[in-house]
Specification:
This protein is α/β, with parallel strands linked by helices. It folds into two domains: about 150 residues, Rossmann fold (3-Layer(aba) Sandwich); about 140 residues, Isopropylmalate Dehydrogenase (3-Layer(aba) Sandwich). It contains eleven helices and eleven strands. α3 links the parallel β2 and β3. The protein is elongated.
């Protein structure tokens, strides 16, 4: 798939998924949930203060007919109730509503009803960028501040699973750095080379890893040819951009969002089921795209399990 339209078309062949929303009395989230339902992406279970959910829905002229609403006034309890639905298999994915990120993540990691798997959690942002022939998977731009080499292995594994779910059979992973050669004084280049070696040795599978790579060599074939780097495994055709730290990833993410013609969707991975962790600053379409991405991944996880 090279755009979100293709992703939405793929969803039409999947069984309809269900998203559990924690503290659902949020206008932006309810709008996205309504659009997801209308586009046959997913149904929703709304967990939170029922009176406030109805009040917000009325302000949006949104009918709540067909929605299951579970009335839980306390935000912490609402999050635990919602995540338990996913934990117990009564919903396929978990979405943040009007609750702070810390409280939401605490429910994700709850030992009794949460979505722990033993793998590290990481964030994946899928981008459709005008002018590029393929979609880009950016990771990690929002969750792990300073990933260790071990963390990066987990991030790659998590993101490769997402790419596979989206139809990329053998994604090309570019561990990014400022330069494309190993420099002992630049730890990001050393770790990138180690990741490539681990891939060659079969310790990281299901993908091709080539690093270190500068951004231009990762996404621009013409730059790769100009620099004489056509012997690399990745020649401007990377699928997954692995950032050295959260600063680099977040800066690129926000630059794309605010300056380029893009569509994007984001999920948290490494969990028992996809987690939709959008912010209030995200656009309506980003929220809907995130639900769609989560639905595709949930379908893949169900088949693989």
């Amino acid at each position: 798939m090279n755009n979100f339209d293709a992703l939405l078309e793929k969803i039409s062949s999947c069984s309809k998924k269900k998203v559990a929303v924690a503290v659902a009395q949020d206008d932006a989230v309810l709008e996205a949930v309504q659009a997801a339902k209308e586009r046959n992406i997913a149904d929703a279970i709304l967990v939170g203060d029922e009176d406030k959910i109805k009040e917000v829905a009325a302000s949006l002229n949104m009918s709540l007919e067909g929605y299951e609403i579970i009335d839980v006034k306390n935000n912490t309890e609402a999050a635990l109730t919602a995540v338990k639905l996913v934990h117990d298999g009564k919903a396929d994915m978990y979405m943040k509503g009007l609750i702070d990120t810390k409280g939401f993540l605490k429910s994700v990691l709850d030992k009794e009803v949460g979505l722990r798997t033993g793998k590290p959690l990481s964030h994946v942002a899928l981008f459709e960028v005008e002018g590029l022939e393929k979609m880009l998977y950016l990771t990690d731009v929002a969750f792990i501040p300073y990933p260790t080499l071990e963390d990066k292995v987990g991030i790659i594994e998590n993101t490769v699973e997402v790419a596979h779910a989206c139809g990329v059979e053998c994604p090309k992973v570019a561990p990014l750095a400022a330069v494309e050669v190993v420099n002992p004084k630049m730890p990001a280049t050393v770790e990138a080379a180690e990741l490539a070696k681990m891939n060659e040795e079969g310790k990281i599978t299901g993908c091709i890893v080539d690093g270190p790579l500068s951004m231009d060599l990762a996404i621009d074939p013409e730059a790769a040819r100009h620099k004489g780097a056509t012997d690399r495994k990745i020649v401007g055709d990377a699928d997954i951009l692995l950032f050295p730290d959260i600063h680099a990833g977040n800066l690129v993410y926000k630059t794309l969002v605010h300056t380029a013609n893009v569509k994007n969707g984001c999920i948290l991975t490494g969990t028992k089921a996809p987690v939709i962790l959008t912010s209030r600053s995200d656009t309506f379409e980003t929220k809907v795209n995130s639900i769609a991405l989560a639905a595709i991944v949930a379908e893949s996880m169900a088949k693989n399990n």
